[in-house]
Amino acid sequence: MDLKLLQDTPPWDWPDGTAKIFRKILTDRRADAADRLIAADLAGDFTVINDELADVLLNIIGNSAEPPLLRAKAAISLGPALESATDGFDDPDDVPIGEGMFRKIRKSLEKLYADRSTPKEVRRRILEAAVRAPEDWQAAAVRQAYLSGDAEWLLTAVFAMRWIPGFDEQILASLENPDPEIQFEAVVAAGEWELAPAWAHIVGLVESPDTPKNLLLAAISSVATIRPSEAGEILGDLADSEDEDIAEAADEALMMAETLSGDEEEEDEEIS
Question: Does residue 230 contact residue 262 with C-beta atoms inside 8 Å?
Fold first, then answer.
C-alpha cells in the first residue's frame, strides 16, 4: 500500500484492512522510517483507531529506542480518541477505544510526561494529546510550560489552554504575541472559552485585510462563540467571499451563532 497516496485520500475511502497495515508497519522497526511516520500520523483517525492500534502507538511513545519524532507523532495521534471518550462510553459508536484502553492511555501519558528523560518534543506532544481528556495534573503542567521562557513550550501551553480552564489572562496576553502560531492558538482558545475581553481584538483580525488566512479562519469561528448575536453583522460579507475557505468558515460560524443565540434566548425565557 502506498501510504503517501493515503495521505491524499479521504479516510472514509481508505480500503478495508488499513488499520492492520498501519499496525504492521508501526511494529516493524525495519520498515521505512518515512512510512512509519506517516502510519503514526494517520493511525489516530476515527476510521482506523481501535484498542489494538492505540496500544501500538502507546508502546512506541514509551519506547526510548524509537526515534523521538515517531514517538511524538504517535502521542499526538491519541488525542482525538481521548477527547471522544470524555463524554463516556454509553454509545460505542461514538468512542473508538474501550474504557480500559482510555484509562491505560491517560495513566501512561501522565507517567511519561513526568519522566524528564522523555525528549522535549515527545513531552510536548504528550501534553497536547493528554489535555483533550482533562485531568488535575495538567493545569500545573500547562502553567509550567507557559512560564518556561521557551517559545515551543509556550506554543504547547496556549494550545492546551483551549481545553484546560483557568487561563483567561494568559490567553488574552497571548493574543498580542508576535508569534503567529501562538496568536492562532490564543484566538482559538478565546473562542472556546467565549472570552468577552478578546472581542475587539478578534473583530480587528476579521476586519483587517492583512490578517493571515489561517488566523482569519480561526477568528471567524471565535466571533460566533464570543458574541453570537453580533456575528451576522461582522461576518455577513465574508459569507460571500470569493475564497471558498473563507466563505465556508463564515457560513459555518453564522450557523453556529444562530444556534447559540437560540440557546441564549431559551435560557432567558427560563429565567424570566
Answer: no
pTM of the model: 0.92
**pLDDT in the model for residue 261:** 83
Report the half-sphere exposure of 224 (CA within 13 A, side-chain side). Answer: 22
Domain limits of the chain?
A: 1-133
Contact 128, 161 (CB under 8 A): no
How far is Cα 196 from Cα 177, in angstroms, rounded to an integer? Answer: 19
Spatial distance between the Cα atoms of 129 and 185, rounded to a whole number of angstroms: 15
Q: The CATH number of 1-133 is which of 1.10.287, 1.25.40, 1.20.120, 3.30.2410?
A: 1.25.40
Q: What is the pLDDT of residues 108-126, one digit of tens each?
A: 999 999 999 999 999 999 9
pLDDT of residue 178 exceeding 60, the answer is yes
Residue matched to cell numbers 462563540? 225
Cα–Cα distance list, 166 to 213, 239, 271 (Å): 29, 33, 27
Q: Give the count of beta carbons closer than 10 Å to the beta carbon of residue 103.
A: 11
Q: Which amino acid is at 63?
A: N
